[in-house]
Amino acid sequence: MTTRAWTTIKEYEDIKFDFFEGIAKITINRPEVYNAFRPQTNFDMLDAMEICRERSDIGVIVFTGTGDKAFCSGGDQNVKGVGGYIDEHGVPRLNVLDLHKAIRSMPKPVIAMVNGYAIGGGHVLHVVCDLTIASDNAKFGQTGPKVGSFDAGFGSSFLARHVGQKKAREIWFLCKQYTAKEAEEMGMVNKVVPLEQLEDETVDWCKTMLMRSPMALRMIKRGLNAELDGQRGLMEFAGDATMMYYLMEEAQEGKNAFLEKRDPDFQKFPKFP
Ligand code: S0N
Q1: What is the set of domains in the chain, with CATH numbers?
Q2: Which residue has a Cα nearest atom 28 of ligand 1?
Q3: Which pLDDT score, from 0 to 100, does residue 2 have?
Q4: Ligand 1 touching residue 65 (CB < 6 A)
Q5: Which residues bind hydrogencarbonate (predicted)?
Q6: Whole-model pTM over 0.95
Q7: CA-CA-CA-CA torsion for 139, 141, 143, 144, nearest 10 degrees?
Q8: Nearest 10 degrees: CA dihedral of 5, 6, 8, 12?
Q9: Ligand 1 pocket, residue 119 CB under 6 Å
Q10: ipTM, 2 decimals?
Q11: Pairing of strands 60-65, 92-93
Q12: Can you spell out the DSSP letters for 161-212?
């Protein structure tokens, strides 16, 4: 395994947030509960995601967990209360859904680097990411119907796009655990490698994507999302189309004509077949 000079972007209570050569790494840092998340964990990850979105020197985001036991074991059962996961002020929250939305909306690739158990909401977290690279000790599965929770959102619908309807129902209805190899064969994991090679492999994938056209990756992600995300997905796809239009001289002509108090001359622009 290569040792890399990750630098800390920002300090948080529940996560580590590091940077290395265009890659941001968000590590859930609660190994004592197998990297289960509580409301504060999601607030931390949401804040880090906002920084990833804003910083143009960040091209790819990686999610992982501290240690070699767990990627994430889902919602922290110690703080599960009536109406959600109870924050420090006693407010019940399901703010992991905001994280799912942030991952879907992120105009950059997001990779789950699964280093152990991806269970319950931790399984959903990897499902929602664009790509999943797993170590050979990783285990995947849902527990919701066993422990009194479920995700009928992306954790079901996007999962079914990966593994098919029958398998998605099996995963949720039976709450069994699957090896990394089985998860790869099902289509919900891109690659399985030995644990000691996990970060090297993930960084290789990141470096390859960092060499690709960021706008092309962005539009591919938007298009693939739009197919599943309905009006919201179309809005994001359309928003990026508008952004690209704003980059064209044709759009500048409209604005310039308005400011110069003249009629715009759109005839000079080609009408491609
Ligand atoms: C991960 C499992 C299978 C590991 O088993 P193993 O190896 O036998 O270890 P344990 O001894 O069980 O665990 C080690 C220590 O870690 C603690 N711990 C593990 N998981 C959690 C957890 N989720 N919360 C709190 N603590 C946890 C153990 O207690 C143990 O600590 P010590 O040593 O002190 O005893 C196994 O641990 C396991 O099955 N864990 C629970 C998995 C689970 O059921 N997670 C919750 C599932 N539900 C959700 O995630 C809901 C998420 C949600 O809110 C949501 C809502 C709407 C839409 C979407 C979502 C969403 O899913 O994202």
Answers
A1: 7-211 (3.90.226.10), 214-260 (1.10.12.10)
A2: 33
A3: 85
A4: no
A5: 142-144
A6: yes
A7: 140
A8: -140
A9: yes
A10: 0.97
A11: unpaired
A12: HHH-HHHHHHHHHH---EEHHHHHHHTS-SEEE-GGGHHHHHHHHHHHHHHS
